[in-house]
Amino acid sequence: MPINPPEPDLATVVVNLQRQLLEQQRETDRLQKQIARFNQILQDNVVTPQENPPLTKEDSLHKRFRRMKAPEFEGPTNSIEADNWLLDIQVILDFMGLTEHEKVLCASFVLKKDAQHWWMTVQMRRNVTTMSWQDFMIEFRAMYYNREILTAQQNEFNSFKQGSMTVLEAVKKFEQLAHLCPELVPNETEKVRIMMKMFRTDIAKQISAGSNPPTLVSDCIGQAIRAEYRINQDKEGRIQILKAKKENKDTVKQLQPRQNLKLYSKGQTSNSAQKFKQLGKNKKRKNATSQGQ
């Protein structure tokens, strides 16, 4: 008959459980310390990338401008070279849709060597922080354009007239000349005044007679186009009237010979009858005379 083992003492069981829990707690603490140590090692060895400072408005503007591959300018050997550079830059700046001062910032960014020295002298004698593109072009032309060329361009602009060109053709030429002579059109009002002198007299009169004289270039062009249309319509109407009169006159001329022929034929018939009648009378007289003898 098997002997059953003695039942464990309750106090002994409790002590053993406490010992096991204590060992588990120590193991947990040891593992947590290891994890913390590993995390520290990782943090010490990982290089945190340094954040780039945010781009300023000017940095972003120059970055966009550089992507356009704008030509640099070092100082020309002649006025034509300077004008070509200015035209190339103007196309890029207009395409980017910049403000007047932003155009100055970008254009001055690609000035090099002698041209850069010139720009530094401009900065020393005037405030360029609010300079407009118009002012930049005036300064640039005064430095790099030949005086004879400047005078010739100004004379051409001042004497330019619409002539036989359409309004749109004349405006296109006007804008090209105005671009070469920015000092002559310092503001919108002056540009409108000169443009009005450029238009044909009949067009300018219609614009001036209107109830809303133009104060903006866009308004001036719009009113000129409408005036030109009305003038052309009136001219076309007069041409049609003259054409109709000419056609009527030609028709009358074509009908006149037929009418004359009818009148002539009628006259000829009447004359023949009268002659025949007269012959009859003469014959009767002759017979009467013969009988009397």
UniProtKB/TrEMBL annotation:
It holds the Pfam family Retrotrans_gag. Residues 250-293 are annotated as: Disordered. Keywords: Coiled coil. Residues 107-197 form the Retrotransposon gag domain. Residues 266-275 have a biased composition (Polar residues). Residues 278-287 have a biased composition (Basic residues). It comes from the Eukaryota. The keyword Cytoplasm does not apply. Signal peptide: none annotated. Residues 14-41 form a coiled coil. This is Retrotransposon gag domain-containing protein.
